[in-house]
C-alpha cells in the first residue's frame, strides 16, 4: 500500500501540491496566473498515475497517448507554454501570430486532430547561442511553439509516473522542489560531519546522453508505443542554425543522431533528469550513504557527494556509474575539497564550514558566490551607464529594480547579509553617479548632499534590498 502521505503533503500531485506549484510560478498578469492553476480533471489524472506508479514500482504503463490530445490537457499545456513566453522556433511563428491568425481554439483543435490521427511530426529545432560567464557560448535549442505545446502535454501526462520513482536527494526540475531545498540538504549534511566534498562536473551532459540508453530507461515505466515515438521524434529533430554568411542550415540532430537532448525543449529537463536518476538509484539501492558515509545531492546535471569516511570509494563509484552511462566527468572541473578549509560552489552559492565568532562552533556558511555578486554589480553598472542619461529616469530605475528584485529573490537566503550589503551599496553608488551625470553635478561631495541614500529610495524609487539574513525566505523556483 502507498503511505497516506502520498495523497497529501508529500504527493506533489495532490490539490495542495498542485496549488503550491502554481503559486511558485512568477506571472505578472492575474488572469494568466489563474489559468495556470491545474484543472481538477488533470490533477485527478496525475494523482492516479502517481499513486499507481508509487504502489507498483515494476508496473509499465501502456495506455497514455489518448490523454495527450485531450482538450483540457492541450489547453493547459498552451497556457503554461504561453506564460513562459519565448521566441519563435524554426518556423518563425510567434504566440501573437497564432492568436491573431487562426486563434488559440483553432490552433489547439488542429493539433489535437494531428495527434489523434498520428499525423503529427516534430519540426526542426532552432539553435540559439547563449553567452556563458567564461566567454564561451552555450547552444540552446528552441522548438517551435507547436512542438512546445505538445511536449508540455506529454510532460503533464508522464511526469507523475517518473516523479514517483525519483529519490529524495534529487531536486532539479521537480514539482515542490527548488534549488534552495538542495542547498539546505547540503548544509544539513555538512553540519552532520560530511565535510569532504566531491564537487562533480559532467562534460556536455545534455549533448552526450545516449538516445538508446535513455529510451531504455523510459521503457522501464511505459510501453505505449505512440508516446515513445513522440519522444524519439523530439530527440531526432534536425537542429537549424545560422552560418557565417547568415544562411540557415542544419547543424545537428537528424535520424542518424544517436546522442543528446537539446537544452531549451520543454521535455528535455525531464528526460535528462530521468537519465541521471540511474545514479541516484544505484546510490540508494546499494545504501552507499550508510556503507561509505557518502551523501549525494543532485540538481539536474549538477551534483555533489558529501563524504564522512573518505572520498576514494565514493569517487570510484561516481566514475564507474558515469562511465557505464556513457557520460564523461570533466576532470579539470571535478575536484575534492575539505569544506572546513575552503568553500565550494553549487547553484550560484558558496558553501563552507565556518566558526562562529562568539561561540567558536562550526556551522555551514551559505552565501551568494563572488561570481554571482560580480554578475549583478556588472549588470547594475551597465544599466546606469552615462549613455542612458538621455532616456527617462523611471525607465533606468525600473530596469535596475527588475534586476535587483530577481537577484534578491533567489540569493536572499541563509547567510546572505554581507552580499546583500555589497550589492545594495553598489546600486546606491551607481544610481547616484547616474544622477550626477544626468544633472551635471561634478563634485562627489555635492553628489552625496544632493542625492542622499534616503532620496534614492523615497524619491527615485530604487528597490530596497533586504538587510536581514535570508533564513525565513520562501524557497523560490529556478
What key phrases describe this protein's structure?
RT_dom, single chain, RNA-directed DNA polymerase activity, disordered N terminus, Mat_intron_G2, globular, 478 residues, nucleotidyltransferase, GrpII_Intron_Splice-Mob/Def, alpha+beta, disordered C terminus
Could you describe the 3D structure shown?
The protein is an alpha+beta fold and 478 residues long. Helix 11 (211-219) packs across helix 13 (268-285). The radius of gyration is 25 Å and the shape is globular. Among the domains are: 40-175 and 210-254, no CATH class; 369-459, no CATH class. The chain has 20 helices and eleven strands.
Average of per-residue pLDDT values: 89
* Arrangement of strands in the largest sheet: 2-1-4-5
Q: What would the principal axes of the Cα set say about the shape?
A: globular
Tell me the helix content. 40-55%
Family: Belongs to the bacterial reverse transcriptase family.
Keywords: Nucleotidyltransferase, RNA-directed DNA polymerase, Transferase
GO molecular function: RNA-directed DNA polymerase activity
Pfam families: GIIM, RVT_1
